[in-house]
């Protein structure tokens, strides 16, 4: 997969004095799933909107198949937005037919394509059901079908699993993999779910403050950024939490001590070997531990290491 289907060259966007995207350079390979990650306000959405032709850059350019994005055939890209774009009073079948007609998909092809999409996304039994009567997960899957009804070469998925239960999420993940593996589509995936990005992405781009921080496979990112393993501690008392963090920073071979989502994360070499000493110290100080676990480096750890933050509101 060395052929590039999309390329951002010094892509820059200003809103007045605010620099939202700062000379972004990014090449997306044909037939890959690219996870595009960043905290809220990092410039992620602005970058994506420029890359798919929905927003004009202040400077720089985007190439799609070596041609300027403004000259691109609009059928090249399919967009599945985070906000559902469905006609509530129409059935699943009617929604897909209407979208297919908008893209001038030939009738005979459209009928067959609708049947397959409904089957692949487990909506066949709901083909003649009004959208207003569908569950949230079914609407998400239909939203996905709407984005690919015209067989686009590039598919943009903006937070596709937002609000889904685990079962619905697995169905969607399986379909995203099939877009790449069975249909050779290029998928750009924006998500706040690090597990989703890790499992689905061939490569991950992490952006913050309008700049590209890292671009690599999830495996390489986890190997290269953030050495050691992680001990996670949940300490219910806030005053004790500060004491524990100060204590952990004094331990030998400690790499970092941070608080993430209310938990204390100790990154250290030989993390398991440090556990008896840590537990003994906390017991001696009468500090309650609600939860304690040891795990390996994750993509979320990489994300936090690079952006210096948990997910922003």
Automatic annotation (TrEMBL):
SMART domains on file: AAA
Keywords, sorted A to Z: ATP-binding, Hydrolase, Membrane, Nucleotide-binding, Transmembrane, Transmembrane helix, Transport
Enzyme class: hydrolase
Listed GO CC annotations: membrane
ABC transporter domain segment(s): 6-234
UniProt xrefs under Pfam families: ABC_tran
Coiled coil spans: none
Membrane topology reported for the UniProt record: Multi-pass membrane protein
The EC number(s) this enzyme carries: 3.6.3.25
Localization in the cell: Membrane
UniProt entry tagged with the keyword Isomerase: no
GO terms, molecular function: ATP binding; ATP hydrolysis activity
Protein name (record): Sulfate-transporting ATPase
Organism per entry: Methanobacterium lacus (strain AL-21)
Lineage start: Archaea, Methanobacteriati, Methanobacteriota, Methanomada group, Methanobacteria
